[in-house]
Amino acid sequence: MRLVVLGGGESGVGTAILGKEKGYDVFVSDFGKIKESYKEVLINKGIEWEDEKHTESLILNADVVMKSPGIPEKAPIVKKLVERGIPVISEIEFAAPFTKAITIGITGSNGKTTTTMLTYHLLQSAGLNVGLAGNIGKSFAEQVAEDKYDSYVLELSSFQLDGIINYKPHIAIITNISPDHLDRYDYKYENYIDSKFRITMNQTEEDYLIYDADDEAISEWLQKNKTRAKLIPFSLTKTFEEGAFIKNNTMEAIINQEEFKMETESIALEGKHNLKNAMAATSVAKLMQIRKATIRESLSNFQGVEHRLEKVLKIQNVQYINDSKATNVNATFFALDSMNTPTVWIVGGVDKGNDYNELMALVREKVKAIICLGVDNRKIIDAFGNVVDIMVEVNTMSDAVRMAQHISEKGDAVLLSPACASFDLFENYEDRGRQFKDAVHNL
After folding, report:
1. Residues 292 and 437 in one domain
2. Is 134 within any annotated ligand binding site?
3. Domain count, the chain
């Protein structure tokens, strides 16, 4: 069996390692450059590879192709494979059959990283032998090759879900759905929604789907479509006989006739959206039969995720907050919603078809100045030019932070929450967040 791996990054190299171990004839092809560290791994494992090109004769003879999530379906080489009827799958689909471990799959437009990390923290603190993979950390396929975990918490993007055929998580979570990556879905929101719901398509009556019952797109899909999984909703406004909810400043989760309660103010993560993430993670912990005391302790000591509403420093009584992970409007909505002091907002980057109107009320209420940090800021200026008193354009992070210091006064906050992708000025959102933190430390 010939396995061709497109993309020589973390998921690609991991898949190649697992494929080689399982006896496949493996070839890795990357249209860009493969990092030196990954090349060394491939060479040491005796896996053939190429970079900065796709040699068709070495790719179109595949029995199966694993495509990295960053490569669009519209890429010419992918189109040719599909035309020939060669299965093009994701790393998760390739690796899942080689492990007996239970998987917990988490998807959503926002909150999936925090929910994934929190769920992993809960299970790990309870002493479960659990791995963390998907969009985060070390490749799932490589961890399956090492075979040392009984369960995995997987953060799954819509791109990874597009490449599944038979994969099913035992427990699936959909944190929420809002328009994102529409450039990859023919600008059709319904295609993107369907893509997220692939997480439950192979689930059976023995499996669970945990979902945000306050989310319009999720509720509509569930009304029109069927899943065989057992449904476990969570909500800030409704209560359930089975599910998680907030009542009288207390989070309650009732699952399999067992009740769990915890006062919301004891939960370490701040903000309404984080209560939702906590309800989702708690629901998993209850399904995995973790002790109540362990759940309480884990929820009260969880430190949060880097680049997600991360408090960096307070300088002259101004709080600097790094929310670089907010790459869409919905994520920035949560960030602005959680601000309770006048805010200098640093925003901008590569727009993925954003509608800034959703933020209008929050900007009017909370934002005193906007600093645009992008190559093309026209949409932001058109949207908010008449709403805030101060609007500035900069093109380096250090300029943005210095300008923010200049504009802010005691008691304000400076919030980096770009609502856009980072590729115009930075390598990725992590690079953007690190540059912000460095610039703040250098003030």
Report:
1. no
2. no
3. 3
* Residue 163 annotated in ligand binding: no
70 and 168 within one domain: no
The annotation status of 113 as a binding-site residue, yes or no, is yes
CA angle 84, 89, 95 (to 5 degrees): 140
DSSP per-residue codes, 167-222 = ---SEEEE-------GGGTTT-HHHHHHHHHGGGTT--TTSEEEEETT-HHHHHHH
Q: How many CB atoms lie within 10 A of CB 72?
A: 12
DSSP-derived letter for residue 34 is: P
Task: Answer yes or no: is 112 a known binding residue.
Answer: yes
| Strand pairing class (230-235; 243-247) | parallel
Query: Of all residues in the chain, what percent are helix, strand and coil, respectively (each to 5)?
Result: 40, 25, 40
The tens place of each residue's pLDDT in the chain, 443 residues long, gives 999 999 999 999 999 999 999 999 999 999 999 999 999 999 999 999 999 999 999 999 999 999 998 888 889 999 999 999 999 999 999 999 999 999 999 999 888 889 999 999 999 999 999 999 998 889 999 999 999 899 999 999 988 999 999 999 999 999 999 877 677 777 888 888 998 999 999 999 999 999 999 999 999 999 999 999 999 999 999 999 999 999 999 999 999 999 999 999 999 988 888 999 999 999 999 999 999 999 999 999 998 778 988 999 999 999 999 999 999 898 899 899 989 999 999 999 988 788 999 999 999 999 999 999 998 899 999 999 999 999 999 999 999 999 999 999 999 999 999 999 988 899 999 999 999 999 999 99
Is 85 annotated as contributing to ligand binding? no
Sign of CA dihedral 262, 266, 268, 271: positive
Q: Do 65 and 43 fall into the same domain?
A: yes
Rounded distance, CA 367 to CA 373, Å?
16
4 beta partners: 27, 65
At 386, which CATH number?
Answer: 3.90.190.20
Domain boundary among 58, 89, 120: 89
How far apart (Å, rounded) are the C-alpha atoms in residues 235 and 176? Answer: 11
E-assigned strand segments in 200-242: 208-212, 230-235
Which residues lie closer than 8 Å to 25 by C-beta, 6 or more apart? Answer: 1, 2, 3
Residues found in the chain = 443
Query: Residue 83's domain spans which residues?
Result: 2-89
Q: Are residues 64 and 160 in the same domain?
A: no
Q: How far apart are CA 412 and CA 428, in angstroms?
A: 27
Same domain, 398 and 346: yes
> What is the pTM for the complete model shown?
0.81
